[in-house]
Amino acid sequence: AGSGIFLEDVNSGMVKDNDVSGCGSAGMELTRCSGLLVTSNILSKNRVGLRITPRREGAPIIIKDNLFLNNESYGIEVLGREPEISGSIKIGENAFSGNGGESIYRTP
User: Fold this and answer.
1) Cβ–Cβ under 8 Å, residues 91 and 85
2) Beta-carbon count within 10 A of 21 CB
């Protein structure tokens, strides 16, 4: 019932070419990470496709060329408040289809 891929306090690297489905929490969860490239992943039929709690300092997390498909709530859920996390995530060129909530949800 947890997350398919869980990374915590990772400050560089790449998460690529994974197909994660059926997770009770998030298909992928990144907690206090920075400097990651998340690309070419398929996240489907999870509660949330990708949940991010970004690190406030360090290089941004880049999320591009992923497919978020039929997740129960959000494709991407970003936790944390602005302006503390401003600039810590760059999201672009992803595909979203059939997610129950917003494609990209940021904590208000």
Assistant:
1) no
2) 15
So what's the pLDDT on residue 87? 82
d(C-alpha 38, C-alpha 87), whole Å: 16
Secondary structure (H, E, C), 45-102: CCCEEEEEEECCCCCCEEEECCEEECCCCCCEEECCCCCCCCCCEEEECCEEECCCCC
pLDDT for 20 equals 98
Give the CA distances from residue 60 to residues 72, 74, 108, in Å, rounded to whole numbers and listed in that order. Answer: 27, 21, 20
State the 10-residue block means of pLDDT for the chain, 108 residues long: 92 97 96 96 98 89 97 95 79 96 89
